[in-house]
Amino acid sequence: MTDETAPKTEDFRPEARAPRGFADKRARDLRAEKSILEAVSAVYERYGFEALDTGAFEYADALGKFLPDSDRPNEGVFALQDDDDQWMALRYDLTAPLARFAAQNWETLPKPFRRYAFGPVWRNEKPGPGRFRQFIQCDADTVGSARPEADAEIIAMAVEGLQAAGLPRGAAVLKINNRKLLNGLLTQAGATSEGQKLSVLRAVDKLDRLGVDGVRLLLGEGRLDDSGDFTKGAGLAGKAIDSVLDFVQAGVGGRSATLNNIAKVVAGSAEGDEGLEELARIDAALTSLGVADDQAIIDPSIVRGLEYYTGAVFEAELLLSTTDEKGNKVTFGSIGGGGRYDDLVARFTGQPVPATGFSFGVSRLAAALRAAGREPASAARGPVVIINFDQAHMGEYFAVAGQLRAAGIPAEVYLGTSGMRPQMKYADRRLSPAAIMLGGDEIAAGTVTIKDLDLGRELASGVADNAAWKAERPGQQTIPRGDLVAAVKKIIGG
């Protein structure tokens, strides 16, 4: 028996919210990213790299480095179990899918295999300011060449790609190091265990933030920070600490001078000498490719992918001064990076396959360009808007829209229910270059009235007298309908 006095359950209404770490992007953001991707992809293709697209999902065991020893591999990646009980995960980056593809198709691929790829990647990590769980990357990699010149070509492409994306010379720099130099130095310093080596490298990676004195403490017994927390150090002795600090501070002057400084520190180490030789060949190739010292430098303090890279490592750093929407200074730092990873394909084949590559963080680069006032799509405009005066003339409006679209001009008929003033406001919010007015008089006379909204925005900033503004009606003209396309093209600069 139903209790009619019981309160009725209201229909559930979910809260409209985006998951943390996943951003909604409107046209401005998408245009900016598309502009960067097209510019960088064109550079990759000029260097002879072939486009490759792999699926969003890979088998979880193929991704490897972020998977824990548990039944559900969901640490670092977003994973699900397929109907055949195999775990799949959204790709964490574009390099692991490349390694899988290369191993799977190695016999039929041209060697070395040069490919570029772009697309979204997903990371199941804690989101934060500027740190997303889904973002766009754009990579270029050479698989199958151990030559340092392959690293140099990747670096040269990255330099050219950054400029093509909208960063002029001097706005960014590629910093280069070699893990073999670090490994040789650590061996000389007496760091024997992998744990101690990683501790040294992590200490070096904090040089920009903590300075020489802070790193010195972390290389030794440890460091007590301002909050009172103690970080255990790498446990090196005094002379070994001095050698490491001399090494990371050797990047003074151009690439050649830095190589000479490094040679004094790592002399006598077989692995260090090998790394030094590789950097010298990279420097020579970069010079031949026209990459100057101010565009790519050797910086011994650069540490990337401590358990990933095997040789040369490189990082793109933004040098521009950037501010947020409130005018506060923002430090972006790294906007891309890469290096040599000779062990990744071997996970599948058991055979070492040399590889090197670079990755642009496209979403991050777009944000950095916007903060620096150099957004590639900042001048992007919306479509020409045809004002809707009367339902009876809808056919005429669509005919004009079709005429403009056929000429390659984006156009739309206003399909809301508002009057003239809100329609003009709509066109302005769309950043439309022009509004087309086609009333009964214009239709009868075979004319159209065009309002140049770009000119109107420019003049509006200097108008003091509203009556004069209305009287002058700047940027508005009535022309024969046959002249419409030419007039609009003139407004949009086409």
Shape: elongated
What share of residues is helical? 25-40%
The proportion of residues in beta strands is: 15-25%
- CATH fold field value of the largest domain: BirA Bifunctional Protein, domain 2
How many beta-strand runs?
Answer: 20
- Indicate the multimeric state: single chain
Computed structural class: alpha+beta
CATH structural class of the largest domain = Alpha Beta
Tally of individual domains: 2
Write a structural description.
There is one protein chain. Helix 1 packs antiparallel against helix 4. The mean pLDDT is 86. Strand 8 and strand 9 form a beta hairpin. With 494 residues, the chain is of the alpha+beta class. The chain is 40% helix and 19% strand. The chain has 2 domains: 27-372, Bira Bifunctional Protein, Domain 2 (BirA Bifunctional Protein, domain 2), CATH 3.30.930; 384-493, Anticodon-binding domain (Rossmann fold, 3-Layer(aba) Sandwich), CATH 3.40.50.800. It has helices at 27-46, 60-63, 95-105, 148-165, 179-189, 194-204, 207-219, 238-248, 255-266, 270-288, 346-349, 362-371, 394-406, 420-429, 440-445, 453-460, 466-472, 484-492; strands at 50-51, 57-59, 79-81, 87-90, 113-122, 134-143, 172-178, 222-224, 230-232, 296-298, 312-318, 322-323, 329-330, 334-340, 355-361, 384-386, 411-413, 434-437, 447-452, 476-480. The chain has 18 helices and 20 strands. The strands form 5 sheets. It has an 8-stranded mixed sheet. A 5-stranded mixed sheet has the order 17-16-18-19-20. A 3-stranded antiparallel sheet has the order 2-4-3. One of its GO terms (molecular function) is ATP binding. This is Histidine--tRNA ligase. Residues 1-383 form the Aminoacyl-transfer RNA synthetases class-II family profile domain. It comes from Caulobacter endophyticus. Its EC number is 6.1.1.21.
